[in-house]
Structure formats: structure tokens, C-alpha cells
Specification:
mainly alpha
């Protein structure tokens, strides 16, 4: 899910994502035209930046659109028609643009997957922490009751030995080497 999709409605997000692709190519063209004397040998470099920006913020589709628009703009403004010798150069540019778009999309998907896994793990940690606090409080209460009763152990029901929803024996197996670590 792109940054635009999280903050807006789907139709607005679509317009923003693809609008960014068009605007980034237009900005690359404008800057290239303004600085034509300096960019004569590397006229395509700013168009690669437009593709990266479109892919990063918009995803694969806007990145590919930016690539196609860039090829069209480069062809129209820099070569004034497609010559036979320009076709391989434009094809390489288009393949590079598609690769950039795909890689940016994959990176965004991986980042979103990691964010989701982190959120799920955080939720599990909070649930287990709450369970352990409850268990710890029960153990403290049992210990206080035992101490008040002259050291006589308090008999617990089988439901209480499950220790706060954990299956019997699970907590003991995890903490067998520190039997009173939850009580302190």
C-alpha cells in the first residue's frame, strides 16, 4: 500500500499516484531544457530520477507510466524523431525504467510486510506481558496467603494451576530453572 493510498480514498489515491508520474516527467523535462548546455551528454539522468520518484511513491504502474512518458519525451525533444540508431538506446532506457519500477515496488511491498509483521509481534508481546503480569500477581497473592497461614500451602483448583489461561505445565516448563522468578 503506497503512502497515498493510506491517507486518501482509492480514486483520489489513483489520481495522485499517476499525477505524480506525469508531473515528475514534466519537471525532469523542464529542468533538462533549462540546463540543456550542461546536460547534453546525459539528458536521460533526470528522467531516471522521475521514474524512481514515481515508482517509490506511486508503485509499479506510475513508475512504468513515467518510463513510457520519459521515452516519449526524450524521443520527441532530444532526437526529433526515432532513428534506427536510437531504437536500442531507447529500448535499454525503457528496460532500465521497468527494472527500477519493479525493484521499487518490491522494496515497498517488503517494507509493508515487515511493518505488518512488527505490528503483529508487538500485539503478541503486549498480550503475553499482560498474561505474565496477571500470573505474577496471582503467585504473589498465593505466596502472601501461604505466609499468613503459617507456611501451610494453599490448595489450588485445577483451573488455577493453569496459571492465567496457560495450559498446565507450560509455564513451569519455560521457567523450571527459576521457579520463583515471576514472584519477585
Amino acid at each position: 500500500m503506497s503512502k497515498f493510498e493510506r491517507s486518501t480514498r482509492p480514486s483520489t489515491a489513483f489520481v495522485l499516484r499517476y499525477g505524480l508520474a506525469v508531473l515528475s516527467v514534466a519537471a525532469a523535462l523542464s529542468i533538462t531544457q533549462l540546463l540543456r548546455a550542461y546536460f547534453e551528454t546525459t539528458a536521460n539522468s533526470l528522467f531516471f530520477c522521475a521514474i524512481v520518484i514515481s515508482s517509490w511513491f506511486g508503485g509499479l504502474g506510475p513508475g512504468l507510466l513515467a518510463g513510457l512518458l520519459s521515452v516519449g519525451v526524450i524521443d520527441y525533444f532530444h532526437t526529433l524523431g526515432v532513428n534506427a540508431e536510437d531504437v536500442p538506446r531507447l529500448a535499454v532506457f525503457l528496460v532500465s525504467a521497468a527494472s527500477i519500477s519493479w525493484l521499487s515496488g518490491e522494496q515497498r511491498r517488503a517494507k509493508e510486510s515487515l511493518r505488518q509483521a512488527r505490528d503483529e509481534l508487538e500485539l503478541k508481546v503486549q498480550e503475553r506481558t499482560a498474561e505474565l503480569r496477571q500470573i505474577n500477581e496471582e503467585l504473589r497473592a498465593d505466596r502472601r496467603t501461604e505466609e499468613r497461614g503459617g507456611g501451610t500451602p494453599v490448595k489450588r483448583s485445577s483451573a488455577q494451576t493453569g496459571t492465567g489461561g496457560c495450559p498446565p505445565g507450560e509455564l513451569r516448563s519455560r521457567c523450571a530453572h527459576r521457579p520463583y522468578s515471576l514472584v519477585r
